[in-house]
Amino acid sequence: MRTSPHVLPLALIAGLAITLAACTGSSSPDAETRTITGSVAPVTEGASSADWTVTAWQAGEGEPEVVAEASADDDGAFSIDVADAGESVAYLTAESSSGDATLAVAVADLSQTSKVTLNERTTVAAAYALAQFVEAEGITGPSPGLDNAAAMAATLADPASGDYGDVLTTAPNGNETSTLPAFTSLTDMLGACIVDDENCSRLTDAAGVDAGADALQTFAAIARDPSADPEALFEIAAAEAGDRPGLSAAPAAWTLTLLFDGGGDQLAGPGNFAIDPEGNIWVNNNYEYNADPQTPVCGSDQMFKFSPTGELLETYSGGGLSGSGYGIEFDATGDIWLSNFGFAAPAPGCPDDEQPPHNSMSLFAYDGTAISSDTGYTEGDLSWPQGIEVAGDGGVWIANCGNDTVSLYPEGDPEQGVNLGSMGLEQPFDVVDNGERIFVTGTVNSTVAVAERDGTPIEGSPLTGSFDRPMGAAVDADGNVWISNSGGITLPCPERVADGRGTPSVVMISPDGTTVSEPYTGGGLTLPWGIATDGDGNVWAANFEEQRISHFCGVNADTCPRGLQTGDAISPEDTGYSFDGLQRSTGITVDPSGNVWTTNNWKTAAVQTNPGGHQIVAYIGAAAPVAVAPFE
User: Fold this and answer.
1) pLDDT of res. 473
2) Dist. CA 12–CA 25, nearest whole Å
């Protein structure tokens, strides 16, 4: 997606509108119509509800189509008759009579919608959740990413009432983090524009969009580059006092971040993610849940499935799960593999007869049925397995940090499992297939092994030089491999190697594995663990310290803001994209809607016998979406 949108002038939006109850060209002349009632109801003091023109749009992969137009009455009320197009994404925009202010609301399922409210909250919610789908012509994009993004908007603001969303206002969010006041401050910016045209110009300038950009374009641009001009945006927010307190000072970045805890009584040490083609989020888990941090716990036997909007859908157990730490990945058919690290060596406080095993893999069908036995798969001399990769040829690769080796299940068949030896690595951690070769990080001796898919190391493997206790590995669309250099993480696999702290960074390896970049630093990196690339090839890293994630420009600098080049930090130098609801993060991924997900894996001040965090975390609309291919 582009980082600063071309502007669709408001006059053109109005010019595209058609008469009340008119249908789109794709609708059948015989299609039944339904009436949507609504209200244009700005919450900013002094803003009028009268003299607004409301336009309803239907969104999909092509250009959005105008469904109908209506004028709000003096109280802001309106009614629109629309052709019933079944389950589809729609959005409504409202333009003030002066043409200087706009509002919007997103609707995830038009067939289930009968009432909407357009105000500052629904506008900011739609702009952030759909940030990666806001184009010059409006909102456009493929399913399921677009549909899920529209649904995510409701976590921030209720599209029917216009009130704050339940997820935003209740634990573990609400008054427990800074997201609610940050959201309020963003709505204050829009309110300042509604009551004073001059503030509209200040807002578009600070957002980096052309004068005359509508509110969706403006706030989507802020979501995509939240640290471009945070002070100027805060000054605009301070011009209007909202209905509840906003931020008291400018943030380093205007991100909106939500916590999801699955009900608050199950997650304990979520380690990493796998995203399915529908955008559902599958999470492995390290520990048994116990809310009392003083109560020792043992290894978890659970895996979790969350909806694209963070709702816990299912909990699965069995299959030999025992403290599945970091490795989780789907194969091409939809079966899901997990590595059982067993979380510590031995698990402190866990009774001797309940110690989790540290030597197995688990396999589940997509419906959650365990395929592996109660002991999992142990072939291949597994030992404290961490990162795994299902390669393009179906082979399952496993990094064994406990015995310094790498294992391979050819074609995903444990009975053919082999141990490939050390490959020159000490405490290997993560594995990635770039479509040509396999790359494995070696944490203790700061190396990366490169091998053919049959396990044969290439000449010059393992690579050295630019690595400093590397952890996660990720690949972009061009086959470049990105490595997170922790600069200081040592793993209990089963012995922790004491060493000093180096410089945290990310490094890029060429697709053929022969060229390694210099380390790229900054961006708020502190102790990077997991790493991911988004749909533009830009790079995201999870930090195990200081409550932030980091963001870097990838190979295609045209997708990066502010003229930044490959390896430059996009997130702020000193803080990254900080969030007071974050703890110690391990896994990180980008979903088909452009949300960046990371884990609260360990509590910030952890008791070693029960250290697990209890949430997964979403940075709303922050990254170019990553589509997931349908299962075979």
Assistant:
1) 98
2) 19
pLDDT for 85 equals 64
Q: Is the dihedral of CA 44, 47, 51, 53 positive or negative?
A: negative
Are 556 and 504 in contact by the 8 Å Cβ rule? The answer is no
User: pTM value?
Assistant: 0.94
* Token pair of 261 as six digits: 């805890």
Residue 176 is predicted with a pLDDT of: 97
CB-based contact 519:484 (threshold 8 Å) = no
Q: What is the pLDDT of residue 50?
A: 93
Contact 339, 384 (CB under 8 A): no
Maximum distance among all alpha carbons in the chain?
76
Rounded Cα–Cα distance for residues 119 and 165 (Å): 13
Tell me if residue 23 falls in helix, strand or coil.
coil
Match 């589940």 to its residue by tokens. 364
DSSP-H helix ranges across 209-290: 215-224, 230-237
Residue 582, C-beta contacts closer than 8 angstroms, at least 6 positions apart: 257, 547, 548, 549, 598, 600, 617
What gap in Å lies between CA 461 and CA 596, rounded to an integer? 32
Say if residues 483 and 469 touch (Cβ distance below 8 Å). Answer: no
CA atoms within 13 A on the CB side of 427: 18
pLDDT at 125: 98
Strands 270-275 and 281-285: antiparallel
So what's the pLDDT on residue 31? 57
Tell me if 91 sits within 8 A of 82, measured CB to CB: no
For the chain, list residues with pLDDT below 50: 1-29
- How do beta strands 33-40 and 115-118 pair? parallel
- pLDDT score of 551: 98
DSSP, collapsed to helix, strand or coil, labels residue 77 as strand
What local confidence, expressed as pLDDT, does residue 345 receive?
Answer: 66
Query: 175 burial class (0-12, 13-18, 19+ CB within 10 angstroms)?
Result: exposed
DSSP states of 175-188: GGSSHHHHHHHHHH
Tokens representing residue 572 in the block: 């702020």
Comparing C-alpha atoms, which of 71, 73, 100, 72 is closest to residue 11?
A: 100
Residue positions counted in the chain: 632
Tell me if the bond preceding 29 is cis, omega within 30° of 0. Answer: no
